[in-house]
Amino acid sequence: MFDFLDSGQYDLLGAFWVTVQLTLYSAVGSLIWGTVLAGMRVSPVPLMRAFGTAYVNLVRNTPLTLLIIGCSLGLFQTLTINLGGDTSKETGFRLAVLALTAYTGTFVCEALRSGINTVPVGQAEAARALGLSFFQVLTLIVLPQAFRAVIAPLANVLIALTKNTTVAAAIGVAEAALLMKEMIENEADALFAVFGIFALGFCLLTLPTGLLLGWVAKRVAVKR
Questions:
Q1: Residue 175 — φ and ψ, nearest 5°?
Q2: Exposed (0-12), middle (13-18) or buried (19+): which is 217, by Cβ within 10 Å?
Q3: Among 79, 88, 119, 171, which residue has the least CB neighbours within 10 Å?
């Protein structure tokens, strides 16, 4: 049933490695961008709050496939922005990371904002009374507690991001979903085996992540 794996025609580990890279780069970018957006949404500056709210509501409700194809057609093919990629494959990978970061950052933002709301208002007021600026209050007092409170929700966002990397196949990024499509076309007599292989692969990527971050969330939870 699995004889087609011995032919050397399919680079299964390489495809999943691209998926892992997409997940890691996008996760770091999403965490940074989502934190910035969360800061904007709780900022005392009306313009920043308006931008953060509009961005989150617009991008979060836009299909990810549309964002990835839009980056490819708009940035690369129309504006010839290749993000430093030397080949079309490198450019496609970086555009996919950009789109995944822009999309997933909105969910990170909302998770962090819910964590910020768990921090007692009195702590921020006391910090302001000591002369700390809004940025200092946010980075030194509020965000450290907010991150500890939302590790479990962020784990769910990371798992969703891992599965969302399959959309990158729409612009030809050679990750697991694109290889699965090729194998389904070439190995029509082994459909269940192909589906089983990729289902197992994604389970091996997502289940340990959920278990590990769930354990971390319990260890660092803020006791109130």
A1: -100, -170
A2: middle
A3: 79
From first CA to last CA, the distance across the chain in angstroms is 55
Q: What angle do CA 19, 22, 26 make, to 5 degrees?
A: 145
Distance between CA atoms of residues 81 and 79, nearest Å: 5
Question: Has this prediction a pTM greater than 0.70?
Answer: yes
Rounded Cα distance between 211 and 75, Å, is: 38
| Rounded Cα gap, residues 155 and 107, in angstroms | 11
Single-letter code of the amino acid located at 160: A
CA 124/CA 179 separation, integer angstroms: 50
> How many other CB atoms sit within 10 Å of the CB of residue 197?
18
Q: How many CB atoms lie within 10 A of CB 75?
A: 18
pLDDT digits (tens, 9 = 90+) for 125-145: 888 888 888 888 988 889 988
R_g (Cα) of the chain, nearest Å: 21
What gap in Å lies between CA 199 and CA 122, rounded to an integer? 48
Residue with tokens 């299964």: 12
